[in-house]
Amino acid sequence: MNDADFMRYSRQLLLEDIALEGQQKLLESRVLIVGSGGLGSPAALYLAAAGVGTLVIADDDRVHISNLQRQILFTEEHIGQPKATAAAQQLQRLNPPIRVVPLNQRLLGESLYQQASLANVVLDCSDNMTTRQAINAACVASNVPLITASAVGFSGQLMVLTPPWQQGCYHCVWQDDDEPEGNCRTAGVLGPVVGVMGTLQALEAIKLLTGMATATGALHLFDARQHSWNKIQLQKSTSCPVCGELSHANPV
Amino acid sequence: MQILFNEEPLQCPDAQRLSALLTELGKLQPGCALAVNQTIIPRPQWDQFVLHDGDAILLFQAIAGG
Fold first, then answer.
1. β-sheet bridge partners, residue A33
2. Does residue B32 form part of some domain?
3. pLDDT tens digits, one per residue of A6-29
4. Are A181 and B31 in contact (CB < 8 Å)?
C-alpha cells in the first residue's frame, strides 16, 4: 500500500478487525457480482470503495430510466448503455487503482462456473430464480462462498452460504425453479429496501474476505414496514441434488 | 393441540404431519419455504415431519427480485 492507500482506507484500517492485514486481504481479493441493479449497485459501490482488488460485474441488461429510482450506480447519461460497462466506469471513478471487469452478458453454464471458480466470494444480486439457482450450483461445485440477497415490495431476504455447505445451499431452501409471482418490475420495490439488502451483501463480503466471523447458516428475513428482522436457521436437505450426499453423481 | 401458523393460533390434531396440515389449509404450493420454531424444514421432509403442541410454523414465499 502507498501513502494514498493509507489515507483512502484510514477509517477502516483503524478497526482492529480489519487493520493492515485485513486491508491487504481485501486488495488481493476477487469478487464476482452477478447483477448490477438495485442490489448490485450499493454492493459494488461499497466493495469498490473498501478496496476489493478485483470486481467482476456481470449483467446483460441496459440502463433504463425506470432503473434510476434504485440502481444508484447509474445517472441519466447512462440510459441505454450496457449496465456492466456503465457500472465499471462509475466504480473506476470512485477508486481508480482497483480493477473492475465488466461482463456484458448473462453468465450461464461454463462461463458462470469459471467466473465463480476464480472468485473468493460471489454476490448473487440477480433478479430471477433461474439465475439464482445457476449461481448457487456454480458456487457449490467450485466451493466458493455465496452471499445471496433479494428484495421486492417491502421485503428482503439474505443468506450467507459457505463451504462445506453443512447448513445446506440455496436449493435446500428454495427447491422450485419457477419464478415467484412478484418481482420488482411487476410488484414494485422501494430503493432503500433493495439498498439495505445490497449494502448488507457488501458488509458480509468484507467480513468473509477479511476473516471476520459472519452470519452464516441463517436466512435473514427483512420486513421494511415493521423495520424488523427474522432470523431462520438453515438446515441441509440430505437429498439435495446440488449439495446433498448424492450430488457428486450429478456434477453441475 | 394448538400450534402457531404464521403467528396465528391454530387447533390441529395431535401428531399432525406438516404436509397434511398444509394440504388441509390449502397452502401446499410451490415457491414456499417453511420453518418450524425458527429452523428451515427442507421440503422433502414435510411428509414425515410430525408437529408438536406449541410449535410455531412460518410459511413464506421466495423473493427473487433485485
1. A57, A123
2. yes
3. 999 999 999 999 999 999 999 999
4. yes
With the C-alpha atoms ordered B29, A191, A40, A15, is the resulting torsion angle positive or negative? negative
Checking DSSP bridges between strand A54-58 and strand A146-152, what pairing results, if any? unpaired
Chain A residues whose beta carbon lies within 8 Å of the beta carbon of residue B62: 129, 150, 157, 174, 176, 180
d(CA A96, CA A163) in angstroms, rounded, equals: 32
Q: Closest partner residue to B39 among A176, A178, A233, by Cβ?
A: A233
What is the domain count for chain A? 1
B66 located within any domain: no
What total number of domains does chain B contain?
1
Reported ipTM: the value is 0.94
Contact A69, A38 (CB under 8 A): no
Cell (9 digits) for A244: 446433498
Q: Residue A12 is part of a domain; what is its CATH number? A: 3.40.50.720
Region A55-68 average pLDDT: 98
Pairing mode, strands A54-58 and A99-103: parallel
Confidence (pTM): 0.95
Cα angle vertex A215, ends A214, A218, to 5°? 150
Give me the CATH number covering residue B7: 3.10.20.30
Domain around A131? 3-249
Catalytic, A172? Answer no
Mean pLDDT over B8-37 rounds to: 94
Helices (H), chain A: 3-8, 10-13, 19-27, 40-50, 83-94, 109-118, 129-142, 170-173, 184-187, 191-209
Q: How confident is the model at residue A186 (pLDDT cuts 50, 70, 90)?
A: confident
Among the partner residues B39, B63, B66, nearest to A235 by beta-carbon distance: B39
Residue listed under C-alpha cell 445446506 = A168
Q: Which domain holds residue B21?
A: 2-61
| Alpha helical stretches, state H, B6-46 | 18-25
